[in-house]
């Protein structure tokens, strides 16, 4: 009995030590693992590049405007590929930063819409997409956007005030990054998020337990609210009211927190990639926005 009594305190002490060790290990893991978890989300779930489709890549024009294959270097030295469409007598050029899936050929319909409103268009593939070499990353695709902009200004001799950046979905962060670091004439954001962290928390609910101070927002260039919270060129946000990939609440949050000048157009009964189901609102919104860029109110 004496041995048994002396064993109980010993067991309790060992149990307490074990529990304390588990608590300490849990807290340390909570702090240490949160940024890597976010990084893992970005690398494993964020990018879905597709190789070039031979048939689509062989097109020579879109709605009669000749396609030019263009090549330029990324900041890392990778060879990037894009398409350039020079619309005769156009005053503006739209630089498209596309979403996370497919490649530039998946955006032929968007290119056609923009060419119809008498703008020239350039679209490019990020590293690892289509014919572009390399591996995509949040930092890398923003640098690719810089390289595409520099190509327009330095090679095509386009004046910065005539460049309109167009960001689709994930490309919205690239467009905001360009507009935040370089002079442009306007910003169009289609189906994009307020920040990568915001949408990640909606898709991966376990990330909600981590506060911002732990460094979850590992790539600040993916924060569109921050990029648009100070002076910026005229802004047009377009979003479908039935978007289940990036809900309309993200567009409303971005609009509310962005500084003026700004405008929000909601496409009726439209999902994430279905802007063509509501061209009755999409085309006039784009046309009115671009026509108004040269008005005295925007200067």
Describe the SSE topology.
Blueprint: H1 2-45, E1 48-49, H2 54-57, E2 61-62, E3 65-73, E4 79-85, E5 93-97, E6 101-102, H3 108-116, E7 120-124, H4 138-155, E8 163-168, H5 171-181, E9 186-190, H6 196-203, H7 224-227, E10 235-240, H8 248-257, E11 262-267, H9 279-291
Parallel strand pairs: 1-6, 5-7, 5-8, 8-9, 9-10, 10-11
Antiparallel strand pairs: 2-3, 3-4, 4-7
Structure description:
- With 299 residues, the chain is of the alpha/beta class.
- The chain has one domain: Alpha/Beta hydrolase fold, catalytic domain (Rossmann fold, 3-Layer(aba) Sandwich).
- It is 40% helix and 18% strand.
- The chain has helices spanning 2-45, 54-57, 108-116, 138-155, 171-181, 196-203, 224-227, 248-257, 279-291, and strands spanning 48-49, 61-62, 65-73, 79-85, 93-97, 101-102, 120-124, 163-168, 186-190, 235-240, 262-267.
- The protein has a nine-stranded mixed sheet, with helices on both faces.
- Strand 3 and strand 4 form a beta hairpin.
- Helix 4 packs across helix 5.
- The protein is globular.
- Residues 1-11 and 21-33 have low confidence and may be disordered.
CATH level-two architecture: 3-Layer(aba) Sandwich
CATH topology group:
Rossmann fold
Report the portion of residues in β strands. 15-25%
CATH class: Alpha Beta
Number of domains: 1
Order of helices and strands: HEHEEEEEHEHEHEHHEHEH
> What's the story with the biggest beta sheet?
9 strands, mixed
Helical percent range? Answer: 40-55%
| Structural class designation | alpha/beta
